[in-house]
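Bench log. Compound arrived from synthesis this morning; before running ITC I wanted a structural hypothesis for how fe (iii) ion sits in the protein. Inputs:
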Amino acid sequence: MREFSFFMPTKLVFGQDVVKKAGAGLALGKKALIVTGRSSARLSGALDDVLEALSGEYVLFDRVENNPTGENCQEGAELARRENCDYIIAIGGGSPLDAAKVMAVLAVNEKSPLELYAQGWEKKPLPIVAIPTTAGTGSEVTPYAVLTIHEEETKKGLGGPDLFPAVAYLDPRYTASLPLQVTIDTAVDALSHLVEGYLSNRASSASDLAALQGIAVWGGVIPALRSGDISLQVREDLLLASMLGGITIAQTGTTFVHALGYPLTYFHDYPHGRANGIFMASYLEFTHAHAPERVEMVLELLDLPSLNAFRELMNELFADYVGKLHVPEERIRAYAEKAAQTKNVSYSRGTPSVEELTEILKENIL
Ligand code: NAP
Ligand code: FE
C-alpha cells in the first residue's frame, strides 16, 4: 500500500510587485536581518522594493558568498544577535537563501555550523521571508541549506522541517537582470530537481503533482533557452518551474546527479546547476533501465523524441563546458567513492554502485 506524507508550510505569494503589495505585512517581527549577496539584491531591484515596503527597523548583511561556508553564516548570525533581530529577510539566489537559513538557526542556538550536522538544534530558528532572484534552487520552498564544508572537501545539505521559510515572495522581474549563462545554469538546476524528484525512489503521488507540472512548464521554455531570447513570460515560467522543483525535492530529496555535481563545484568551480547539467543525460540513460515509463514521461513532457535528443539539448546549453573538463582517473574514483556515501545515491532508482558512478563520471569528465 502507498505510504507518504507531504509537508510544505511556506506561504507562497507569486506575481508582479508582490513585495510592494505586501507593504507592512512584509515584517514578521520588530527588527529584520536582511541577508543578501554582494550585488544581486540591488541589481534585481528586490532590495529597493523591500526597503520601500518595510516600515520597521532592519540591519543589512550583504556579504554572503557563492556556495557559502559555515563561517560566512556565523558572521551573519553574530550580527543578528548583536542587533537583536527577531526575523530574517533573505534576498538572492540559493546562496543567500541557504545562508539565511543557517543564520536563523545559529542566531538562537549556541553551536558551530559543523555541530548542526552532527547534533541538530533545539531552539526554533528565526522566521524567514525568502525572496529569490534566481530561478533554480527553489530554496524558498525547501527545508534545506547547502553549505561548503572545507573539512570534508565537499558541499553538504543540512535539513530540518523548521528550515522552510515562513513566507516566500516570488516576483519574476527580479530574475530579469540575470546574465544568460546564469539563467541557463539555474534553469537546469530547477530541471534537475523536477526530474530527480520524479525519478526518485521516494516520489509519491503528491510530489509527482508538482514535478509533472513543473517539467511540462520547463519543456515550454526550451526554445527560449536555446535561442537566448528570454522574455518576461519565460522568466515567469522559469520561476514557477523552479518553485515546483523546490516543492518536489522538499518531499523527495535529490538523487545522484546532485551527489556527482558537488565535486565539480568544490574542486572545479562549476556553478551548481551546470555541475548537475553535465550528468543529467547519463542519469536519464541509467534510470531508463530501472523505470522506463517514468523516463519516457519526462521526455514526452519536455517534447523531446529520445534520450539522445535530451543529451543534445544539454550539449547545446552547455556548449562551452561539455567535454571540456578532464579529470584524472584516480580523482574520478575518489569522487565516485564519496558520492556513493551520500543519501542522494540511495534515493536513486537502481542505486548505482561505485563502479557505475565511476563509469558515469568517466563518460562525462575524463
Ligand atoms: P547563487 O550562488 O545564489 O548566485 C549565483 C550568482 O548569480 C551570484 O554571483 C549572484 O550574485 C548572481 N545573481 C543572483 N541573482 C541575480 C540577479 N537577479 N541578477 C544578477 N545576478 C544575480 O546561485 P544559485 O544557483 O541560485 O544558488 C546556488 C546555491 O544554492 C548552491 O550553494 C547550491 O548548492 C544551493 N542549492 C540549494 C538548494 C536548496 O534546496 N536549499 C537546492 C539546490 C541548490 P550575488 O553575489 O550578489 O549573490
Ligand atoms: Fe540543486
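What the model suggests: The chain has two domains: 11-174, 180-365. Residues 37-40, 43-44, 66-67, 92-96, 98, 133-134, 136-139, 142, 144-146, 155, 174-175, 177-178, 182, 186, 189, 272-273 surround NAP (ligand 1) (CB under 6 Å).
ITC booked for Thursday regardless.
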